[in-house]
Amino acid sequence: MSSTTGSVLSLPFRKSTPLSLASTIREYVSSKYDQHPDMFKQDLEAVDTLRCDAVNVREPHVSGISKLQAYAAQLVWMGGKFPIDFTWYPALGYNTERPMVRNNLKYELMNVLYNLAALYSQVAVNNPRLTPDNLKVAAHNFNLAAGVLTHVQKEVLPDLRMPDPPEDMDESTLEALIHLFLAQSQEATWQSGVLRDLKDLSIAKLAARVSDLYNAAAEAAVKSEAISSAWIHHMTAKHHHFAGAAQFRAARDCLEKRRYGEEVARLKDAVACLSEGVRETKGGYLSRLVVNDLSSLKKMAEDELKRSEKDNDMIFLDPVPPKSELKVLDRFNMAEPKVPPAVARPLEHLGDKAKFGPALFSRLVPFSVHVALSIYEERRDRMVNQNIILELEQLTEKVHLLLSSVGLPGSLQAMEKPLGLPPSLVQHAEELRQADAIGRVQRSLADIDKLRQADLAVFEEGKSALAAERDEDDRLRARHGTERWTRPDGRNDAQGAKLWGHAGEIEGYFDSSLSSDGIVKEKFAATQHLLHVLCGPDRALLAFVPASAQRETSEELKSSIGKLRSAYNDVLRLESRRRKKVEWLRQNAVRDDIKPDILKEAARLERAYPSTAIVPAHFEDFFEKRLDVLYEPELQFVDREAQEQEKVIGLVERANREFEAQKRKVGDRGLQEREQALQKLDSAYFKYKEIVNNLEVGRKFYNDLNKIVGQGFRDVAKGWLSQRRMEARALEEQVAPSAARPLVHASRRIHANRRRELSMPPLSNLDLSHNHGGQSPLMATYAPNQQANLVSDPTQQQPQQQQQFARGPLPQPGTASAAISPAEESIQSWATAGHQVQQTQAAVSQPANPTGGMWSPAMGIKFGGEGPRQGTAGGSGTWNPDGGIKFGQPHQVLTEAWRPWLTIKTGVLTFKTGFVLSNPPATLTSKVEAAMLASKCPHVYSIAHGVHGPGNVGSVVYRVPSRGHLCREKSEGVGNVERPKRRTGSIRKQPSMAHRAHQ
């Protein structure tokens, strides 16, 4: 994690992944710019070479400095031209193998400058430190390293605008590294002063400043997540070391100036400081050289303190002042950050004859210019469509409403042409026929419905991503608990809250658009029958418009008709002029190519501010001036149109009042019907125009909404979902280990017990059924004896042995008899870990039992038949019910705590303690297994050697979980395991004949 040489530290390099800038930039230029990538062939090759040279600087040699500086200068020049993903790995901290990827040239620049600072520090560390000149060079390189990091901290990092900068380049880490390199620069100057034999007081002032800088570095390092404990201990030890060294040198100056009491006081403080430094050496964090320097200086200070105290007490008798009264040492500061000129002013080093060559991609338009171009076009379209065209259309609509309210032009047309069709009506009808008016509206409505459904589908994808994130977070929160799952839910996350709010806004857009679509459809439905008339043949029009009687008109009526026609023609001229103006505005907006002018403005900004990256905000004044020049006259035109319209409307109203007065004198009913028909058709024509305009607005709305719901919502929601899933996986990795820690001890115990266990056959493999028909010839041969497996003593290293058990005393005569067949079962005994397990078969043959298979305590239990008894335990071989039944390790002792359960669940006869099995059922296995499962005790694995007949006592073997009990409810009934002593019987190493026959 760090690079150390002797008593100083150097910064390791950050690593990057190989990246072909040429191919990435070529693709980006091809897709985003109107310039062909081949124009920049040499630049593409040069930038790849520069990056390759820069990221491969790995040796502490001065030749790498120019490589890093040249690439950094080109990055500053390219600025925000290309949004490229750059991958870098941290150099400090605990995540040095976790890459960080950012789509920013500033991020690349920051990493290159970081490596430049690391190179300066490594050159300083590897520089010889034997002469004052060597130390001067080392100090200068440390100052340059601190200067580069200061430039990153103050100039590059703020422009990066990263909410989460790399942990080894955050504010605290950079502050700690800057003070560390300044401290090491000051230390080199102090060491040079020692070699040049400066005065003690001067060396003390240099050392005091070293101590201050190390202290500042340590305080900042504590706040950093990347700087290791070893570095923090190093900085703290150095702080105490040089504080003690400063007081030691000051004490020598006091001795020279015969201030003996102050000498003693400063030596005491020196010893105290050095003792604190020695404490930092515990734990093995520091290099041997630092420890030796501290220890030797402390020894020297202690010796000097003893001498000075002795001399002062016996000779000089100078009072020793307390530490608070000692004068604070002055500081000689010889270390300061120095930013290399190639880093501070990189553009001055770019040019045809400059140090780093010509600036790359100088003929390429900056990316911010394209953004500014888009901003201007959007602002221009908004001004043209909303501030000019929309205002003119609203003025025209206002005129139509007024004309419709007074019955114009229908009343005027009916009076002027009582027979046939008016020319304006014929013109409107022909226009609608050629435009296929009804089909056009229907197709537009269908297209709008498709656009709406497409936008809604995209929106639902985004909502599904939000819902998926919510469900996943709820599921993980329920799994891990709210105490461990501390991550805020999606609605409380900053990005999530924004997305959910955006989803609500978009739903509002859909609701309002649905209402608007409904209004347009209602308009069309109300006008459709009239549009059918207009789009039909002239015969249909003539049939729809009734004719009126032709009569002579008075001079007054003719005069009023002429005035009204003149005023109405003024309205028509207004409409025509506005239509032409709207057409011209739209064409002019298309022709408005701002690109040449904005490129000139960008070039001017680059020349005026070479060190400032161009952003769209720099073009605000340029936009305002251009829009004012081009469209301010049009805004004034709208105002003039509004004023002129008011005058025309006044003329129409006065002329229409006079016309209506003269018309009432005529009083022809047929004329009124003709007026109404003509007015309906004229209103239908203008309503069609309004519907078409509404449909165009709706189509544009849904096309714009598609960008909002797609790029602005769905894509962002999916990206946020992926980010939240990554956060969840990382949090689960943190939560899972902490949740598993309380189970570590139990888990170890479980695994330890399982290693001592052998796999037992499942209950379903057992066959303890009765055979009332007698015995087979083969089994009858081995009927007198019952063979069973005994479990090996864990303390003895011997194979498994076989032992024969003899039947106990026969029961009293007179009881009912029952024939019980032998039980052949394979039993696997448990052994200690590492022992081999052998399986044997025990064949048991029993005659009919006259007592019905009942056992009583008076019978006793006798083990063995042949062979001598082993041990004295057991006496006569009679079983004591108070002792329960004990099995070989690790079988459990089942005691009285199990008696109620056995009695209730299996119907087994239970004595005072322990249990015996009386007259077992046909399938003992299923009974016991069902009973154990019914009592929530699923840990029964096998049963071997059930009890058959009087005196034939086998064993019911339960393999239990490693917690040491069969189930939770009965855990108190489990005792320690003891192996019963072997009574009689022969030991056989091979399976019996019955075993082989059974197999």
From TrEMBL:
Q: Where is the composition biased (Low complexity)?
A: 816-829
Which InterPro entries does the entry link to? ALIX_V_dom, BRO1_dom, BRO1_sf
A cellular-component GO term for this protein? endosome
Gene3D superfamilies, sorted: alix/aip1 in complex with the ypdl late domain, alix/aip1 like domains
Q: Where is this region: Disordered?
A: 754-882, 969-999
Per the record, the domain of life is Eukaryota
The UniProt record lists the BRO1 domain at 7-399
Give residue spans, biased composition: Gly residues.
Answer: 862-877
Extract the coiled-coil ranges from the record: none
Q: Which regions are flagged for Polar residues bias?
A: 783-795, 835-849
UniProt-listed CDD domains: BRO1_ScRim20-like (cd09241)
Pfam families reported for this sequence: ALIX_LYPXL_bnd, BRO1
Which protein family is it in? Answer: Belongs to the palA/RIM20 family.
What is the protein's given name?
pH-response regulator protein palA/RIM20
- Organism equals Drechmeria coniospora (Nematophagous fungus)
